[in-house]
Structures are given as C-alpha cells and as structure tokens.
Specification:
The structure is a single chain. By secondary structure, the chain is of the alpha+beta class. It has 3 domains: 10-92; 125-187, Helix Hairpins; 194-346, Histidine kinase-like ATPase, C-terminal domain (Heat Shock Protein 90, 2-Layer Sandwich), CATH 3.30.565.10. Helix content is 60%, strand content 13%. It has helices spanning 10-32, 35-73, 79-88, 94-148, 158-187, 199-209, 211-216, 237-254, 301-306, 313-323, and strands at 194-198, 220-223, 232-236, 260-267, 272-279, 328-333, 337-346. Strands 1, 2, 3, 4, 5, 6 and 7 form a 7-stranded mixed beta sheet that branches. The longest helix is centred in the middle third of the chain and has 55 residues, at 94-148. It is elongated, with a radius of gyration of 36 Å.
Length: 349
C-alpha cells in the first residue's frame, strides 16, 4: 500500500519533515566522524526539528484554522469546543479542514439563495396584495365620486352604483377574511378540532351546498364508482369542509358547461386516505402547476378575475392540509381537466 500524504495530521507532518532533515545530517556526521556521533546527530536533529516544526504549525497555521472554525460557528467557544480545538482539530488533515469549510460555504450559499427567493416572493406578494385591494378600492371611489357629483339624484343609476360599490366592498371583506385565515393557520393560532367522520358524507354535503352553482352550468357532481363504501377519517371536519368547498368552487368556475366533477376516495395504507376532486374543464398549463398554491397566483389574471374569487382559495387549502400534517398535490392538462388531491389520517380509536 502506497504511503498517503494527503491527510497527514500536524504531528505526522512534523515527524515526516523532521525525518527528512535529520537523515542527511545524521549520514553526514556518520561519514565525517563515526557511527555514534552520526546516530546522536540524527536523533537530536529529528527531535529538535520535530518540536520546532510542530510549534510553527500549531502556533501559526492551526491558530488561524481555529479562528476560521470560530468564524464558521459564529460563537464564543464553550469548554466542549475548546476541548475540540485542543485535541480533535489538530488531528485533522488540511484536506479534512478544507472539506469542513466547503460544507459551511455550501450551507451559507444555500441560505443566501433561500433569502433571495423569500425576498422575491415577499415583493411579489406585496405587489399582488396592493393590486388586489386597489381594484375594488378604485371601483368604490369611482362610484361614490359619481354619486356625489350629482348621480345620487338620478334614480336610474344611483341604486345600481350603490349595489356595485357594495359588491366591491364584499370583495374586500372576503379578501381580508381569507388573509386572516391564512395568517392564523400559519401562526398556529387557529386550533384544529379533530374527530372521526365519514369523508363521503362530507363530500355529499358540499356537493348539495353548491348544487345551485353547479346546476347553473349544468355540471354533474358525483363520487367515483367503487369509492362509495364509507371511509372514516380523523380530521377537523369544518376545516376539511372548507377545503372541499374551495376545490369544488374552483372546479365549477373552470369546468366546462355540461361537464362533471368527480370525487375519489382511496385507502393508500393503514394510516392514510387519499381524497381527490377532479373536473374536465379548461385545465392548467404545466409551467403554472408548481405555483398554483401560492397566494394570489393566477394562471390567467384576466380570466381569473372574471370568474371572481380572491386568489387565496388554494393557498388556504394548502395551509389547512399541512396544518393536519398531511400533503396536497395537483395534476392538470390543458383542455383535459384538473385533479387536486390531499391525504388525511384514517380513523382514530
């Protein structure tokens, strides 16, 4: 096996260097004087060189390395860390130290990239928030100004303007309520009241509640054949009702006339149930799918506003499902339809 020099410790490096210095000197004395003087010269040179080189490495090189480690960990050394610096660090080869520094650099680089992404997301969120509020506020302002400038006395327009202003106020109220809902879910201020219930029964209730909206577009709602057998889940029933309501409302908005909305329920394993809501509507382009659960993200801003909504429905669904410790996903294809699925825990005894 070849002698490896890449990961030598300071002691090994000192010994190897001292040996290279001592052997020629010892041989020289051996040739000039005699064997004992040569051996003594070799021994003294080796010992002296070893401690001198070790001192230089410890004092100048590893002292700097200690400072690098302290900078990496950004903390005042504790007794445990001092022990590490004194006994463990000097045993490390330069390559090992380099690997530690590279890992730290990669970690910092990842943290910086995450901060940049969060900053970009924050800016986009604030821009979207301002835009969502600006639209109804300007509409209300326009109606009120028109009424104050004399239209209030015109019986043909005053009531219509007030009704339109009221609709925009309702839109702002819904927006604030949805934002408040998400904030509470994120902060954990809104507790979950979990119970056992049959998920098919809840889906049927949601279908019945939204039957006027679905009937207006002649959309049929149903539970997929083979998924009718009652399955008990353990979750906050009202929060899951909200998720299902949002998903069915979306499927109705973006579904096609005379289309269908189908709910599927599957036991994936002994601990989880998969619930999916599918439509056969306009679908979502693949490039939008990774972002559809973001707040205010719209795949088509103009068309989305025409069908109403705050742009927070899917974001609320995501937060509710994640608050349950479960996952939510989406599959879609243009002109084929969309399926949103989420998992829930099975019945608890």
């Amino acid at each position: 096996m070849m002698f490896e020099t890449k990961n030598l410790s300071p002691q090994q490096l000192s010994a190897l260097t001292a040996l290279f210095l001592a052997v020629p000197i010892g041989i020289a004395f051996l040739l000039i004087e005699n064997i004992w003087i040569g051996i003594i010269a070799l021994f003294l040179t080796f010992i002296g060189s070893y401690y001198l080189i070790g001192f230089v490495l410890e004092s100048f090189i590893y002292r700097k390395i200690k400072l690098i480690y302290k900078f990496i960990y950004q903390t005042k050394a504790s007794k445990r860390e001092e022990t590490y610096y004194k006994y463990i660090l000097p045993q490390k080869g330069i390559d090992e130290v380099r690997e530690d520094v590279e890992k730290w650099a990669e970690q910092k680089s990842a943290e910086i990239e995450l901060l940049k992404q969060n900053e970009a997301y924050r800016k986009e969120f604030l821009q979207n928030l301002a835009h969502e509020f600006k639209t109804p506020i300007f509409a209300i302002q326009g109606y009120v100004d028109t009424l104050l400038n004399g239209a209030i006395d015109n019986t043909e327009v005053n009531r219509r303007f007030l009704e339109n202003a009221s609709k925009n106020i309702d839109r702002m109220v819904n927006l604030v309520e949805d934002l408040d809902e998400i904030s509470k879910l994120e902060s954990g201020e809104q507790p979950l009241y979990k119970e056992n219930f049959v998920i098919q029964d809840l889906i049927k209730e949601v279908f019945e509640t939204l039957s006027i909206k679905t009937a207006a577009r002649q959309i049929k709602t149903s539970i997929k054949k083979g998924c009718e057998a009652p399955i008990m889940v353990f979750a906050d029933k009202e929060k899951i009702r909200q998720v299902l309501n949002n998903l069915v409302v979306n499927a109705t908005k973006y579904g096609k006339n005379n289309g269908s909305i189908v709910a599927s329920i599957y036991k994936t394993d002994g601990a989880h149930v998969l619930v999916e809501i599918s439509d056969d509507g306009i679908g979502i382009a693949e490039e939008h799918l990774p972002r559809v659960f973001e707040r205010f993200y719209r795949t088509d801003r103009g068309r989305s506003r025409n069908v109403g909504g705050t742009g927070l429905g899917l974001a609320i669904c995501k937060h509710i499902i994640e608050a349950h410790g479960q996952t939510i996903h989406i599959r879609s294809k243009i002109d084929v339809g969309t399926t949103v699925g989420f998992t829930l825990a099975t019945k608890r005894n």
